[in-house]
Amino acid sequence: SNLQNINTYTARNWINLFYNPADGSYPIPKGGYLILYNEVLRAGNARAQLNYNHTFHKDHEFNAIAGAELREIKVTSTARNSFGYDPTTGTSVDNLDYADYFPLNPFGNNYATIPATPGGVSVNTDRFLSYFANAAYTYKGRYTATLSGRKDGANIFGVKTNDRITPLWSTGLGWDISKEKFYHLSWLPYLKLRASYGYNGNVYNASAYLTAQYATSQLTGEPYSSVTSPPNPQLRWERVRNENPGINFSSAREIISGTLEFYQKKGTDLIAPSPLAPSTGFTSFKGNAASMRTNGFDLTLNTRNISAAISWTTTLLLSHTHDKVIHIDEAFDAKTLTGNSTIGTPQFAGILPVVGKPLYGIYSYRWGGLDPQGNPQGYLGDTLSTDYQQILSNSSLSNLVFNGSSRPLWYGSIRNTVSWKGFSISANIIFKLDYYFRRSSISLNYADNIVGDKVNSDYENRWQKPGDEKITNIPALVYPSDDNRNNFYTGSSILIEKGDHIRLQDISLQYTFDKQHFRKLPFEQASLY
To answer: What backbone phi and psi angles, to 5 degrees, belong to 338?
Structure first.
C-alpha cells in the first residue's frame, strides 16, 4: 500500500497536470493517490525417495537413489490505483473521465487521457513432475563411475507427451591417481581426474497454449481481451549438452590445493521469438528456434601462507567464459534488435541474439565526430551524414559497430584471510575484465534538460560555439526537440566504454565462539561478524 497524500509531489503533479484554468475544473480530483498491490504465492511439494548404500568385500562401493517429485506453484496478484483518495474515509473518486483528451499543463499544447486505473486479478499456476535416479560405483577407492537419469514434465509445454516430459541424463568418471601404486609424487599427494557428459533441461516461463488477457475499454466501458501469446503445441524443453573435464589437486600439508575444470555447453531447442506471417494475426511466437555454445574454465586455488598462532590463507577464483549464438530462425537486423527503428532507445539492451556473436553483445552507430555547427555526424554507407532519420532507418548489422560483450569474459577474486585465536579479518578484491557498457549522457533536446533536478555532467562539456568541435564530442543542445538526432547520439559508439575494473569488494571482521574455549556454550560453534 503506497499512499501519496495531497501534499506529495506525485499527487500534486497529477492534479495540476490536468487542471483546466479556463473553467477551474479538476479532471483528476484533489486528494491522495493510492497504489494498492497484493501478491500471494502458494507452493506445494511432494517427494518420495529411496536410498541404497552398500560396500562389497571392502573394494566395491555402491550408492544409489531413486524417486519422484510433484510440485505446484500458484501466484495470485491483485492491483488497483485510486485518484482522489481520502485516507480518513478510505474512499476515492471512481467516476473519472478516462475517454476524453485534456490539455496538459503548463503549456496546454499536449493532450492526453487520464491513465486508466490498472486494476484486476492475475493468476499463474505452474505444475512440475519429475522422476529421477542416480547411481555411483567406486572400486578400491580409486575409480568411480556415475550414471544419472531423470524425466521432467511441466504444464507449460506442448500437447504431446514427448514435448511435455523430456528425458535427461548424465554420466561421469573419476580417477584418484594419487592412490595408484606407481604414483610417487610426494610434493603432490592428492591428484584426481574427472570428467562428465550429459544433458540438462531448462524451463521457460511461457505457455504452449493460446493465452489472452482481459481488460476494460476506456472508450466503451465494455470488456475485451488481447492475445498475449499465440499457441504452439510443439513447444518443448530447452536442452543443454554439458562436457566437463576437471582436476582436483593438493600439495603436501595442503599448502596449495584447488580445482581446475573446463566446460563446453551447447544449448539446443532454445526458446526464442520466431517470425509468423502477419496474416495469422501475429507477427511472432515463442518457439524452439535457437542454439548457442559456451566455452570456459574455472580455477579455484587455495594457499596456506602461514600456519602458526597467526594464520594467513589466500583464495583465488578465476573464470573465463565465451559464448556464441550458433543458430536462430529469425534474421536479426537493427530494427529487430531493438524492437524499434532506433538503437538509441532503452530497448537496445539485454539479450541481442546475432549469429556468430555473444548473446549479450553491444552494438552502436558509427561515430563521425561533430560538424562545425555542433551536430553529431554518422555514416550512410561510407559517407558522413547528419540525416539522422536515414541513419536510423537504414542501419543494418553490417553497418553497425559490434563493440563486444556486455558481460565480463573474465571474472575473478582474491581473498586474503588472517586469523588469530578466535579472530579473523579478510579482504576480498574482485576483478571483471573484457566487457563494455553504454554510458549515460545528456539529452540533446534542450527541453529535456530543464525537467527534473538531475543533469548529466556532460552538460558542462557540450558544444557551445564554433571551434568547440575540436575539443569535445558532446553535441550542441537544440530547440525545438529533434528525437532522431538525440537517438542517434544515444546509440552511437562514442558512448561505449570498457567496463574493466578491479575493486576492493568487502572487508570482513569475525570472531568465533566454540566449545573448546567456552565450555558452557549451548551449541558447538557460533560466529559474530
So the answer is: -100, -20
DSSP line for 161-182: HHHHEEEEEEEEEEEEGGGSTT
Tell me how many degrees the CA angle 308-312-315 measures, rounded to the nearest 5. Answer: 140
Distance (Å, rounded) from C-alpha 505 to C-alpha 428? 6
Give the model's pLDDT for residue 159: 66
CB-based burial of residue 274 (10 Å sphere; 0-12 exposed, 13-18 middle, 19+ buried)?
A: middle
Residue 49 CB neighbours (<10 A): 11
Q: How far apart are CA 268 and CA 291, in angstroms?
A: 5
Q: What is the distance between the alpha carbons of residues 17 and 110, in angstroms, rounded to a whole number?
A: 11
Q: What whole-number distance in Å separates Cα of residue 247 and Cα of residue 196? A: 12
354-376 pLDDT, tens digit per residue, is 889 999 999 999 999 999 999 99
In whole angstroms, give the CA distance from residue 461 to residue 444. Answer: 12
What are the angstrom distances between the C-alpha of 441 and each of 271, 388, 418, 479?
Answer: 35, 18, 43, 18
Coil, strand, or helix at residue 8?
A: coil
Phi, psi (rounded to 5 degrees) for 454: -125, 125
Hey, what's the cell of 446? 534542450
- Positive or negative: CA dihedral 174, 198, 361, 229: negative
pLDDT of residue 342: 42
Torsion of CA 161, 163, 283, 278, to 10 degrees: -50
Separation between Cα atoms, residue 322 and residue 336, nearest integer Å:
24
Task: Give the residue carrying C-alpha cell 511432494.
Answer: 46
Contact predicate 132/149, CB 8 Å: yes
Compute CA distances 140 → 62, 65, 175, 191, 251, whole Å: 11, 21, 11, 16, 22
pTM value is 0.76
CB atoms within 10 A of CB 161: 9
- Residue pointed to by grid coordinates 570498457: 498
Find out whether 130 and 152 touch, Cβ atoms under 8 Å: yes
Asked if 128 and 152 touch (Cβ cutoff 8 Å), the reply is yes
Contact by Cβ (8 Å): 529, 507: no
**Residue 145, all three cell numbers:** 563411475
Cα dist. 127→45, 49, 231, 239, 418 in Å? 10, 19, 19, 19, 48
SS3 225: strand
Q: DSSP string covering 126-168, please?
A: EEEEEEEEEEEEEETTTEEEEEEEEEEEETTS-SSHHHHEEEE
Helix or strand holding residue 412 (H, E): strand 410-420
Distance CA 150, CA 69 (A): 11
> Which residue numbers in the chain have pLDDT < 70?
117-118, 158-164, 204-206, 218, 221, 330-350, 395, 452-453
